[in-house]
Structure formats: structure tokens, C-alpha cells
Amino acid sequence: MTMEPEGTHGTTGPHVEVVETEDAVERRAREAYFTASQRQLIWARFKRNRSAMVAATVLVVLILMGVFAPFLSPYNPTVAGRDKDYTNGAPQIPMFCDQNGCSARPFIHGVTRERSIETNFRWVTKVDPDKRAYVEFFVEGWEYNLGPFTFDTHLFGVDEGYVHLFGTDDAGKDIFSRTLHAIYTSLAVGTLGVLISFVLALVIGGVSGYFGGVTDGVIQMVTDAIRTIPIIPLFMAVAAFIPDTWSSETRFFFISIIIGFINWPTLARRVRTHLLVERNQEYVLAAQLQGAGAGHIIRKHLLPSFTSYIIVDLVISFPYIVLSETALSFIGLGLKDPVNSLGVMLQNTTSADVLLNYQWYFIPVLFFIALVMAFVYVGDGLRDAADPYGGSRK
Fold it and tell me: Which residues make Cβ contacts (< 8 Å) with residue 56, sequence separation at least 6?
């Protein structure tokens, strides 16, 4: 027979709420900090950098805009989708109200083309406020590919005619659609260039730093020679070499490869410096005593020891590769029409006529600046966060 404590017969004891003291909370925070992985520490410190977080948000938005550019674009960005009745047309902003009243659906005004005495009987496009074209969503249009699938649905359009949020160029091509595709092209060139430089830097820098001695000396001579090559004369020679019969896709990959081949030395020097220090550590000696080869030690032990720093270097180098493509395309040595890239679109802003009369040509410049600045701020934030034990912990 068991005896129940007095006061508990047939009832349950009162619920006792345990409240942690401030010292306990602080102790748990310290334990979490010192037991966290390197990735967790980097992410925690990166999140405290507000400018880097804002830049990361902008960067993600721009990347998504580039990836889903065909879906977001109402029209084909090439000549095939041009609006011949609205060349050099100003941006059309959807509205809900005008002089004829208001509407629950957004709309734009229609346009008409006529010859004007004031322009020596040249064709002039004028806005007709009595015509309305209503904006529609998820409309069918030109076909495009996303991965292995083919679609013809676009985010928006109008029930009659065209809508040009950023206006049109001198050929009637939609600048909004061209801008989105240009973002994708510039990101694709940058990604391919970064991957090429990344692989070369790891291989060459790893071999140079691990073996040292004569091997390191020879490799560093080659690295320094490549770093001294002037970029503009090199690409002028490359542009003269590229046949005019090459397709835009072939030119795209060729330019990406060239940019990747001339941007690896900086990262390779950093990999070499790190391996020169780490190759004498005890865990490397243990792997050597176990019979591991040089390639296995570099790949499985040395490079993973500073993976976070390599990722930071890649992010930081990304905007410079995008700048290289843009600058080369801008001066006519890189990509050319019909490819849509930010550098190709910037070529259209060089004339005084555009500066005085067609200011909407500069809208892609704003996206180019936002893309580069986003990469710069994200890279700076990652660089600061990659040293999670440096500085004071907030």
C-alpha cells in the first residue's frame, strides 16, 4: 500500500513556471556563440550588417528578375518583338484616372502616328488620350524557354496594342524587356567567368602553395606575367581575331572564357599564401604519414580549411567581372546586338541626341549601378563576417 503526500490526493500539483535569469540567458548565448560552426558565426555576423542585408535583398531581387526575365517581359527583346509604331517612345506608366474619368483597372493611353509640318513631314508618334488600353495579367505572348520547358505566358500586357514601361529605342524594341534580359546576360557572363577563374585559382594556387620551392617560383612568375597584361589592348586583339560569322552565343562564351582566364591570379595568390602557412600544420603531417597524396591533402584538408574566405573572394570578384563585360561591350569589344547585355545597352547612351531627347535610355544604367553596388556591399559584409572572432561581439 502506497501513501500519497498530503495535499496531492486526487489533484495535480500546481504548475511551476521556470523563469530564466538574465545571467542564464547570457550564459546560454555565450555557449551558443562558442559552440557554433563557422558558417553559423558568419551568418550571425552578416545579419547584423544592415547595409549588407539590404544589398543582399536587392541582389536576390535582381537575380530573380534576370532568371525569370522571359516571364516578366511582355515582349520579345529582339527586333522580332519591336513596336514599329512607337519608336523612341517615352515610358508608358499605367494609370487609374485621366481627364475622361477613373477606372478600376489600370490602363495606358493609345498612340497614333502622323506626319507633322513641324518635323518636315516626318512620322511623329502622339498620345491619344481618348484611347485606352487596359493592363492585363498572365497574358499569352511570344514563346520562351525556362529550362527544358516552353511557355508563352507573361506576367502582364494590354488588351490592345503594346505597353512599354521603360519606353522604346530607335528600333521600337521594348527597353523594359531588354533590361531584364541584359541583367540575365551580364550575370551569366559573370558566373561563367567566376567559375573559370575559381577553378584555375584553386588548382594553380593550391599547387604553388603546397609544393613551394622551384614550383612556386615558376608559377608565380607566370602569375605575375598574366597580371601585367593590359586588358584593353588584349581585347582589341581578341575583337580583331573574332570572325564576324560567329553567332552571338559563340561570342558570349568566348568573351566569358577570356574574362575568366585573366581574372584568376588574384585569388590564386591568396590561396597560395594560405597554403604556405597551413601546409606545415600537424593535421597535414598526419595525412602525409597516412600515405595521402598531395592532391588528396589539398582537396580534402587544406582548401576546406578556408572555404568561407574563398566564397567571400568570389562574391567580391563578381562585380569586377560584370564591370569588365560591361566596359568591353560598351566600347564595342565585347558582346554586340542582338545580344542584350548591360554593356550593349549602355552603347545607346553615348549620343547627345539621347542625352537631350530620350533620357529613358539611361534607365538600364540605374539597374547596372544597383547590381554592382549590391555585389560590392554584400562582398564587404561577407568579408567582415568571414572573421567571426575578430573585433568585439555585440
Answer: 374, 378, 381
Cα–Cα distance measured from residue 224 to residue 229, given in angstroms and rounded to the nearest whole number: 9
| 293 and 187, same domain (yes or no) | yes
| Phi, psi (rounded to 5 degrees) for 9 | -70, 120
Q: Which of 193, 92, 173, 171 is nearest to 133 (CA)?
A: 92
Distance of CA 308 to the CA centre of its chain: 19
In a domain, 266, yes or no: yes
Its domain, for residue 126, covers: 80-171
Residues 215-266 pLDDT 10s: 889 999 998 888 888 877 877 777 777 777 777 767 777 877 888 888 888 8
Distance CA 340, CA 348 (A): 12
Total domains in the fold of the chain: 2
User: Is the Cα torsion angle 15, 16, 22, 23 positive or negative in sign?
Assistant: negative
Amino acid type, 9: H
Tell me, what CATH number does 275's domain have? 1.10.3720.10
Same domain, yes or no: 117 and 97:
yes
Highest average pLDDT, of 53-62, 115-124, 221-230, 377-386, comes from 53-62
Q: 326 and 273 in one domain?
A: yes
Q: Which of 143, 171, 199 is the last residue of a domain?
A: 171
Nearest to 187 by CA among 308, 64, 311, 309: 64
The verdict on pTM exceeding 0.70 is yes
Domain end call among 171, 193, 210: 171
Q: pLDDT digits over 150-196, tens only?
A: 999 999 999 888 999 999 988 889 999 999 999 998 888 888 888 88
Angle at 359 between CA 141 and CA 54, to 5 degrees: 75
Within 8 A by CB and 6+ apart from 233, the residues are: none
Picking from 114, 201, 127, the residue whose alpha carbon sits closest to that of residue 164 is: 127
Task: Report which DSSP code applies to 16.
Answer: P
> Mutual orientation of helices 307-330 and 363-385 as an angle, nearest 10°?
160
- Residue 15 is assigned to a structural domain of this protein: no
Identify whether residues 164 and 204 lie together within a single domain: no
* C-alpha span between 336 and 338 (Å, rounded): 6
Flag whether 156 is in a domain: yes
Query: Is 66 inside a domain boundary?
Result: no
Q: Which of 327, 312, 309, 316 is nearest to 376 (CA)?
A: 316
